[in-house]
């Protein structure tokens, strides 16, 4: 006996079969396109590879449903296998493209050239590689949302390896910089730029996490301390700690120490005035760190030797004046 439910079931099977055949035809055309494009991809086209990867993963997930029609199920299984093969090809293409980018950065001559020109700011290669990592992270998050059952371990591992490679690359390239202070400022700028990207703060979670307030990693703190040591320690050390006997000798020694301090301060300031710290929060923190070390020591010195305060005023080198100067550093 023919019932309404049996008719509906038969119609569903026919519709499912038609959908499966249409899907196979459409997917086949897409796979032909992907196969044709993959060999033509270059290092600068990573975003295009990732977009295709997302499309293939999403399409593959759409055909994971179990259907009543045996013929339709066979077609669905065939589509999934084809898409799985294509997904693996795209994973290989992504990996190859990233390796090409790494090789280009290793051999790039602009590292040494841009140190003096860029004022130790965030290098364009750092920005480029971080852009690629962000693109891979976006692709990973998008795939996990649209195709949650798919294994994205390969892409996850590639992201981790690329971050590690970039972190290892920066110290090696920084050795091309002859000025130790600029070298550590370069490492601070670039390490901070990497550390404050969302893929570092909230790996692959898919939720935007914009940092609020300054948060320095241990690595960034080390770079900042090293910069302060090589750039400003000699300025502070020029203030004599000795206290020779006799008022005249003390005055002469202290006056000489003050002159050395002023000279060392102005030389360092002029040399670094146009160095660059692009991030406003990091720039403010670094200025405050210098003020804390240099101006605090200078204030303490003048308190111990009040007879030199007038000399500092005449030379326009009071703590307030020098602090104002330090507030102008790193504008680039």
From TrEMBL:
Gene Ontology MF term list: phosphatidylinositol-4,5-bisphosphate binding
Gene Ontology CC terms: exocyst
Keywords: Exocytosis, Protein transport, Transport
Pfam families per record: Exo70_C (PF03081)
Record-annotated Exocyst complex subunit Exo70 C-terminal domain positions: 5-326
InterPro entries noted in UniProt: Cullin_repeat-like_dom_sf, Exo70, Exo70_C
GO biological process entries: exocytosis; protein transport
Record function comment: Component of the exocyst complex.
PANTHER family given in the database record: EXOCYST COMPLEX PROTEIN EXO70, EXOCYST SUBUNIT EXO70 FAMILY PROTEIN
Family the entry assigns: Belongs to the EXO70 family.
Name of the protein in its database record: Exocyst subunit Exo70 family protein
């Amino acid at each position: 006996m023919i019932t309404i439910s049996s008719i509906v079931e038969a119609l569903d099977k026919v519709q499912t079969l038609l959908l499966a055949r249409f899907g196979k035809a459409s997917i086949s055309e897409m796979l032909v396109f992907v196969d044709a494009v993959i060999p033509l991809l270059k290092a600068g086209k990573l975003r295009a590879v990732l977009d295709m990867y997302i499309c293939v993963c999403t399409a593959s997930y759409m055909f994971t449903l179990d259907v009543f029609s045996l013929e339709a199920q066979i077609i669905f299984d065939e589509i999934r296998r084809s898409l799985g093969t294509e997904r693996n090809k795209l994973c290989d293409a992504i990996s190859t493209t990233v390796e090409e980018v790494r090789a280009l950065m290793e051999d790039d001559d602009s590292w040494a050239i841009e140190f003096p020109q860029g004022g130790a700011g965030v290098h364009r290669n750092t920005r480029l590689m971080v852009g690629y990592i962000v693109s891979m992270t976006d692709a990973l998050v998008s795939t996990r949302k649209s195709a949650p059952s798919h294994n994205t371990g390969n892409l996850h591992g590639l992201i981790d390896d690329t971050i590690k490679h970039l972190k290892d690359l920066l110290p090696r390239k920084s050795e091309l910089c002859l000025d130790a202070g600029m070298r550590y400022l370069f490492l601070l700028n670039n390490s901070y730029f990497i550390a404050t990207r969302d893929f570092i703060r909230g790996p692959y979670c898919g939720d935007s996490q914009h940092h609020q307030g300054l948060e320095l990693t241990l690595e960034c703190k080390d770079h900042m301390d090293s910069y302060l040591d090589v750039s400003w320690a000699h300025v502070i050390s020029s203030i004599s700690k000795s206290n020779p006997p006799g008022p005249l000798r003390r005055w002469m020694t202290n006056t000489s120490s003050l002159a050395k301090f002023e000279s060392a301060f102005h030389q360092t300031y002029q040399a670094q005035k146009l160095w660059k710290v692009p991030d406003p929060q990091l720039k403010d923190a670094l200025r405050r760190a210098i003020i804390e070390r240099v101006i605090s020591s200078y204030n303490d010195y003048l308190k111990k030797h009040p007879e030199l305060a007038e000399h500092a005023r005449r030379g326009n080198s009071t703590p307030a004046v020098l602090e104002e100067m330090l507030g102008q550093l790193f504008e680039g």
